[in-house]
Amino acid sequence: MMTIALLVLAAYLLGSVSSAIIVCRLMGLPDPRTQGSNNPGATNVLRIGGKKAAAITLVGDCLKGLIPLLAAHALQLETHGLAATGLAAFLGHLYPVFFGFQGGKGVATALGVQWGLYWPLGLSVAAIWLFMAKVVRISSLSALVAMGLAPFLLWWLWDDPWLVGMQVLISLILFWRHKSNIRNLLTGAEGRIGTGKPDRN
Question: Dihedral of the CA atoms 35, 61, 52, 131 (nearest 10)?
Answer without folding.
Answer: -100
